[in-house]
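ESCALATION

Customer reports they have been waiting on this structure for their group meeting. Please prioritize. Original submission:
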Amino acid sequence: MFDKLKKWLAPPHYADPDEQRIAVLLNALCWSTLPLILIVTLIGLFFSKLPFGSVIVRTIPLMAAPLLSLWALRHNRLRLGSYSFVYPIWLLLTLFAFLGGGVRAPAFSNFVIIILIASFVLGVRAAFALTGLTLVSGTAMVIADGQGWLPSPIFETATLAYWISVATGLIIASLLFYLFINGLQQAVNQLNVANQKLLETQEQQEKRILERTRALQISADVSRQLSTILDQGDLINAIVQQVQRAFNYYHVHIYLFDQKQGSLVLAGGTGEAGRAMLLGNHRIPAGKGLVGFAAQNRHSVLVPDVAADERWLPNPLLPDTRAEVAVPIITGSEVSGVLDVQHSVRHGLSSSDVDLLQLIANQVAIALQNARSYEAARRLAAHEFHINTIGQKIQQANTIEEVLAVAAAELGQALNAQQTGVLLSVTPVAYGAPPRGGAPPHRGATS
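Update from on-call: job pushed to the front of the queue and completed.
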């Protein structure tokens, strides 16, 4: 029951903090003004000169102002609720002051309260406007009092009326003071929360900047070191070792894409697990696991908790894997491999790791391309050198048999053949005419 009443009396929620502050203040004023109006009405029934029906009639507009304001508040019409509370109350105070003796009436002193309320819920401009209206109405009452135009006070005892007015004003002033201090405290608390969030955001930004700087530095270091390695096997081994050492990852390995088999073949890995998988010719079909998924879709895959991802393929050689990142290595327009990193801490890998590994993967793609270009150039140079060597040895031969022997030996060595031979067909010529019939004799060299 109490919770329902509390919920019913609570102010509506507004998204804007300033509007919410005004709604809280106006809601409290409305619910506090209603019982005060009832109390003043009861006092008026016993101490005023007005008949019972007249007092009730005068109470209705007093009750209507806060009720209308509450209705507007709950229908997201904050501005209407503020106007419907401030200006009707001001008009009623003006009427009571006029009926109670003008500026000497107790109600006139309460204009300060309504002006304060206007400044809280409508702003400074509204407070200045009400101040001007109050000065005009007060001047008019002074003139009317001097001319004898004011009616006689409706209360029998001026002292009692004054005390009732002062008491009502003190209660409302105390409420305003409490609401102002409470609102100020809430504003301070919100400011502290905002400052704390700002500090946290600043710390996060600084952390990201440091991580980004570190990533760029490591990427530059890796690029500089890898640029001096031209052997593909040594290159891949250096990459996985450096990446693991730099970030203390649980495991790092690189797969290269085998176009013929349509699978990703392990080319290098860290630790005993990496060596064991290399000896076992470990490979992953395209599209399978996180590695295959990254290669097939050509974008990085981050899984902070591998146990919650159906694509993850567990490896018995890596039982402590809890998080994994797979980054495709793209050379030109083709995927040449995948850089895969695993961590033993759940949620130990984040988007910052993905950004770093993507930078390194880009450097790896360039280094692999350079290594392959170097290997192709080296093989071409060796091939040309071998051809030149054969040519020189042939030119140094004195007989046809030596020429054939050199050709057979060098070709066998170049082709890594177990046996090579050269067969020649020789046809004797007599007086320019070849013989008819019979098998021609053979002459040649074997090796």
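Sent to customer with the following note: The chain has twelve helices and eight strands.
Escalation resolved.
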